[in-house]
C-alpha cells in the first residue's frame, strides 16, 4: 500500500491549485482531481475521472512511463512525489467506472487495429456518442500488450478487464477479421462507415531476428520476443539502459531467462528514475544491480583494456564483450527540480553479452524505416500505422488525438480534454 502512504503526505489544496502533472500527461488525465478524490475516500469518483481520458486504466496503472511524477512539484518543497501510477492502480482495482457515453449521434466509425492506439481512438469516439466497431486480425484485443508484454509485468486479466469495460460502454469488437483480405476489403469500409481510423501496428516478432549472437543490442520489443520464445541465456551478463518501467521489465525478463548478472543503468540519479522507488525495490529484490549517473558511450567490440591483449594488427584479442559508460555528476538543479548533469570524464566498463536499449524517440523499437502507407486513402492514421514507434502512453494519446480531429471534422462536440 505504498501508493496510499505516498498520498497521505500531500496537501489537497496544493494539488488542487497545481496542474503541472496534468499538463505533463499526454492524455490530459485529471491527476490532481483523482488524487484529491482518493484522499477524501471517494474512490468511485477517482475511477470515474480516470475513465474520462484513459481507455486502458488498468494497463496504465502498470505500464505508464508516468511523466506526471517527473513534473510533480512536491520534491521542490522537500516532500516525495506521490506514486501516481500506483494510485491509479489502486483506484481502478477498487472500482471500475464506465466512461460516459451520450446517445443521439447517427455516425458510425470503424477502427482497424485493437492495440492501445486503436482502443484509445475507439474510447474517445464512443465518449462523443458515436457508434464504433473495432476490427482486428487477432483473436483478442491489446496488440503488443497481449503478445509482447510478459504476464509478470501486465497480467492479462487486467487487459481483459479494460477491454471488457470498453465493450460494456458500447464499443463493438470483431476479432479474427483481417481487413484487406477477401472477406473484408478496405473499400468495403468506406461504404459501410462514416469514417475509418487505421491503427494497424506490428507483431511482437517484427524485427526480432536483428539481434543475434554475443555482444548483441536489442530493443525492448526484440527482447520481449526473445522472452516469449523462451530463448534461455544461462550465465549471460546483461546490461539494460534506462530507468523506466519498460527497462525494469526487460531486466526482469533477463533474470527469468537465466542471466547470471543483470545491470540497469541510467544517466539520472535514482531519485529521478521514472520507475520510482517501488520499481527500484522490485529490481533489488530480484538481484538486479542499479547504476545511476552513468550514460552509455557505445557498444564495445573489445573488452576493458586491462583484460585484453593487443595483437600485431592493433586489435584486441580474447576480449570480453561489454559497454563503456560515462560517469555523470549533478551540476545544478533547475527550477522544476530536475538535475542538470555534466560528464565527469571518468568511464566505467560494464561486461555484457547482451544490451537492451530504447531508441532515440523513446518508442518500443528503433525501426525508423517502418512507415506503412494507408491502405485506404481517406482513412486517418494512428499509432504505428502513422510510422511512429510509440510507448503505450504516447500511442494512446495519439489515438485519442486522431479521434478528436475526426470528430471535429464532422462537427461533433468533444468530451474531455483534446
Q: How far is it from the N-terminal to the C-terminal residue, by CA?
A: 33 Å
Helix content: 25-40%
Question: Major sheet, described briefly?
Answer: 5 strands, parallel
Summing up helix and strand content along with how strands pair, one would put the structural category as: alpha/beta
Low-confidence stretches: 205-214, 305-318, 360-373
Instruction: Characterize the overall form.
Output: globular
Proportion of residues in β-strands: 15-25%
- The radius of gyration over CA amounts to 23 Å
Strand segment count: 15
Strand order of the largest sheet: 3-2-1-4-15
Characterise the protein shown here.
With 418 residues, the chain is of the alpha/beta class. It has 16 helices and 15 strands. Strands 3-2-1-4-15 form a five-stranded parallel beta sheet, covered by helices on one side. A five-stranded parallel beta sheet has the order 5-14-6-7-8. α1 (2-8) packs across α8. The chain is globular. It starts with a helix and ends in a 9-residue tail after the last helix.
TL;DR?
The protein has 418 residues and is an alpha/beta fold. Helices cover 35% and strands 19% of the residues. The longest helix is centred in the C-terminal third of the chain and has 18 residues, at 392-409.
Amino acid at each position: 500500500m505504498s501508493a496510499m502512504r505516498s498520498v497521505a503526505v500531500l496537501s489537497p489544496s496544493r494539488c488542487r491549485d497545481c496542474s503541472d502533472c496534468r499538463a505533463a500527461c499526454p492524455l490530459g488525465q485529471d491527476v490532481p482531481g483523482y488524487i484529491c478524490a482518493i484522499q477524501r475516500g471517494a474512490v468511485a469518483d477517482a475511477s470515474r475521472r480516470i475513465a474520462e481520458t484513459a481507455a486502458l486504466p488498468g494497463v496504465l496503472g502498470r505500464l505508464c512511463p508516468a511523466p506526471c511524477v517527473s513534473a510533480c512539484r512536491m520534491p521542490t518543497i522537500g516532500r516525495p512525489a506521490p506514486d501516481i501510477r500506483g494510485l491509479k492502480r489502486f483506484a481502478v482495482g477498487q472500482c471500475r467506472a464506465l466512461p460516459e457515453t451520450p446517445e443521439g449521434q447517427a455516425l458510425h466509425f470503424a477502427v482497424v487495429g485493437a492495440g492501445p492506439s486503436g482502443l484509445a481512438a475507439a474510447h474517445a469516439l464512443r465518449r462523443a456518442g458515436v457508434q464504433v466497431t473495432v476490427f482486428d486480425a487477432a483473436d483478442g484485443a491489446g496488440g503488443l500488450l497481449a503478445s509482447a508484454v510478459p504476464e509478470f509485468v501486465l497480467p492479462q486479466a487486467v487487459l481483459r478487464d479494460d477491454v471488457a469495460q470498453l465493450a460494456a460502454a458500447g464499443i463493438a469488437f470483431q476479432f479474427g477479421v483481417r481487413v484487406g483480405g477477401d472477406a473484408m476489403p478496405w473499400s468495403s469500409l468506406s461504404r459501410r462507415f462514416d469514417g475509418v481510423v487505421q491503427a494497424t501496428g506490428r507483431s511482437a516478432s517484427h524485427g526480432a531476428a536483428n539481434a543475434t549472437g554475443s555482444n548483441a543490442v536489442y530493443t525492448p520489443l526484440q527482447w520481449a520476443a526473445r522472452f516469449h520464445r523462451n530463448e534461455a541465456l544461462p550465465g549471460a551478463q546483461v546490461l539494460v539502459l534506462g530507468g523506466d518501467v519498460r527497462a525494469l521489465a526487460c531486466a526482469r525478463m533477463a533474470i527469468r531467462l537465466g542471466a547470471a548478472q543483470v545491470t540497469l543503468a541510467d544517466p539520472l540519479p535514482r531519485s529521478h528514475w521514472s520507475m520510482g522507488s517501488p520499481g527500484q525495490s522490485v529490481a533489488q529484490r530480484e538481484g538486479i544491480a542499479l547504476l545511476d549517473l552513468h550514460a552509455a558511450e557505445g557498444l564495445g567490440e573489445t573488452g576493458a583494456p586491462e583484460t585484453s591483449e593487443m595483437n600485431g594488427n592493433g586489435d584486441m584479442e580474447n576480449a570480453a564483450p561489454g559497454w563503456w559508460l560515462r560517469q555523470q555528476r549533478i551540476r545544478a538543479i533547475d527550477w522544476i527540480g530536475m538535475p542538470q548533469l555534466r560528464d565527469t570524464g571518468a568511464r566505467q566498463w560494464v561486461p555484457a553479452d547482451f544490451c537492451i536499449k530504447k531508441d532515440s524517440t523513446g518508442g518500443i523499437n528503433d525501426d525508423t524505416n517502418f512507415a506503412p502507407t494507408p491502405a485506404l486513402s481517406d482513412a486517418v492514421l494512428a499509432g504505428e500505422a502513422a510510422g511512429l514507434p510509440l510507448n503505450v502512453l504516447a500511442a494512446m494519446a495519439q489515438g485519442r488525438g486522431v479521434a478528436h480531429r475526426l470528430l471535429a471534422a464532422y462537427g461533433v462536440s468533444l468530451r474531455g480534454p483534446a
